[in-house]
Amino acid sequence: MGKQTENEKEKEAQLKQPAPAGEFKLVGYANFVRTNPWSDRFQVKRFHHVEFWCSDATNAALRFSWGLGMTLSAKSDLSTGNLTHASYLLRSGQLNFLFSAPYSPSIAVANQLSPASTAAVPTFDRSACLAFLASHGLGVRAIAIEVEDAAAAFSASVAHGARPSSPPVPLDDHAVIAEVQLYGDVVLRYVSFKSCNSSPNPNPEFLPGFEPVEESASFPLDYGLRRLDHAVGNVPELAPMVEYVKKFTGFHEFAEFTAEDVGTTESGLNSLVLASNDEMVLLPMNEPVFGTKRKSQIQTYLEHNEGQGVQHLALMSEDIFRTLREMRRRSSVGGFQFMPSPPPTYYRNLKNRAGDVLTDEQIKECEELGILVDRDDQGTLLQIFTKPVGDRPTLFIEIIQRVGCILKDDEGKAYQKGGCGGFGKGNFSELFKSIEEYEKTLEVKRITEPATA
User: Fold this and answer.
1) Are 233 and 12 in contact (CB under 8 A)?
2) Among residues 162, 192, 217, which one ends one of the domains?
3) Tens digit of pLDDT for each residue in 193-202?
4) 147 and 284 part of one domain
5) Which residues are annotated as a binding site for Fe cation?
6) In the predicted model, what is the mean pLDDT of residues 193-216?
7) 169 band by pLDDT with thresholds 50, 70 and 90
8) Residues with Cβ < 8 Å from 172, sequence gap 6 or more?
């Protein structure tokens, strides 16, 4: 690698500021005691959307649509009067993926408009997007959560140490967005809506400025994905980042894992999960560990991503078997490929570990599809991981289904408790092994020059 510039050294030093003494210490999975202090600094409703920055929003959206079974449901581009950026929304249930790419600023200037005046996402910045792409490639720019009041959430966050990215901006009379920096070049975006005509969301098509796209009746896409379960970030050091996010959100520690809990003899990581009051907005973060035989996968990510960022998105399926059958059918024809499956011995022991939850036929299907199964004291987790979605070994997708933990709200409506079944602690070693094998295929081949006489 080349020498670091002074700016790069300064940025790295800022990222590695130690946490104040006594404020943060991982105790490991066995010693961690889960408590919920209901300490959010603002009212959180749910994950609202994830925005990807890319150089070509059209093709990125089409690839994810085909690979994940998400319908193109709304757009903002030249055809809608947006001369600043092209943005396409994919939707499946409550899961919303937004893909945005910049237009040339000359387009707006030629129409005697300021480059940002027609943007449907007012926080979009062309220069920042191009710099983001140069450093990270295709990646997640914003994790958006719907809150009761975006302006209040922004004010509370900044008052408690959040680094502001964009102050509150009204999109119309009913919607507001604001942003604070999360980690690296990723922002936490707050979205709120004022009720209109007794509707909690006055713009069901997503956000003001977006126009609906009519769904194809001849070729509908739906593989069963329903919502974002959690969004995982990779950071150089966990302590300062956890303290930073906890302080401005009020989110509480939901789970944690150390290298002793989840690593292998080859590599490892430390991880901690932060959660909102209702534990439906989950933000895990990982850091690399050093001194192992192989470089930690987290360190590999940080190098290829040129810094911290979103490592993977866990998507909740209502039927993981159907979802995986559809996704695997398309793996070699424009869809997503998956990490190597665990060995047959893993599934021979599965009946003893989950035979009370899964039928023999489902266990067989888990083996056929490569699904991993884990459980905690509350429920069961079925999960599988794709290979990285782009050229770099960075961002990937996790498909999950949680079984159990069904509760009832005040109105008697059934819902599933957040984080039911955990985060796959029992599968980490198998996942690490598959990633290690995958990374070996990416290692640079050394070409030996022929000896001269």
Assistant:
1) no
2) 217
3) 987 554 444 4
4) no
5) 230, 312, 398
6) 73
7) very high
8) 208
- The boundaries of the domain holding residue 158 are 44-217
Of 217, 245, 279, which closes a domain? 217
State pLDDT tens for residues 355-393.
Answer: 899 999 999 999 999 999 998 888 999 999 999 999 999
Q: What is the pLDDT of residue 285?
A: 97
Q: Are residues 310 and 162 in the same domain?
A: no
Q: How many domains does the chain have?
A: 2
Residues within the annotated binding site?
Answer: 230, 312, 398
